[in-house]
Amino acid sequence: MNKIDIEVLPAYIADQSDPVNNHYVFAYTVTIHNNGSAAAKLLTRHWVITDGDGQIQEVKGDGVIGEQPHLQPGEGFQYTSGTFMNTPFGTMHGSYHMVTDSGEQFDAKIPSFQLTAPNTLH
């Protein structure tokens, strides 16, 4: 059975942000853990980023940070990436398209998480 668990820890990057010009930069550290019984490889990513004004940006591409990690049962993979928005808060969610060693393809859902600059009411 395929069981890919995904945790995301977001962080606001103040020294790269420019609130006066509505430019807010966020990093997020993703931990992917294969809690299933089959090895699986991450092929592609699909992110949906929604800013505080409801503007949606979709990001699709091969792998993550230039890699397509292959996870044996019990193995994990962690990486950090980033994004920017025109508002001090928003949300992200998405999925990773995976394939098992036997060729079965499936999507691992990335739960929604908030991107929030400090001292922001929303």
How would you describe what is shown here?
This protein is mainly beta and 122 residues long. It contains no helices and eight strands. The protein has one domain: Sandwich (Immunoglobulin-like), CATH 2.60.40. The mean pLDDT is 96. Helix content is 0%, strand content 61%. The protein is elongated and about 50 Å long. The chain starts with a strand and ends in a 6-residue tail after the last strand.
List its traits:
mainly beta, three-stranded antiparallel beta sheet
Q: Say what the CATH topology is.
A: Immunoglobulin-like
Order of helices and strands: EEEEEEEE
Biggest pleated-sheet summary: 5 strands, antiparallel
SS summary, helix count: 0
The whole-angstrom Rg is 16 Å
Beta-strand percentage range = over 45%
Query: Superfamily at the CATH H level?
Result: ApaG domain
Residues in helices, as a percent range: under 10%
- Total separate domains: 1
> CA-to-CA gap between the ends?
39 Å
Number of strands: 8
CATH A-level architecture: Sandwich
- The CATH class designation is Mainly Beta
Query: Mean pLDDT, as a whole number?
Result: 96
User: Given the C-alpha coordinates, what overall shape results?
Assistant: elongated
Structural class: mainly beta
Report low-confidence residues grouped into runs of 5 or more.
Answer: none
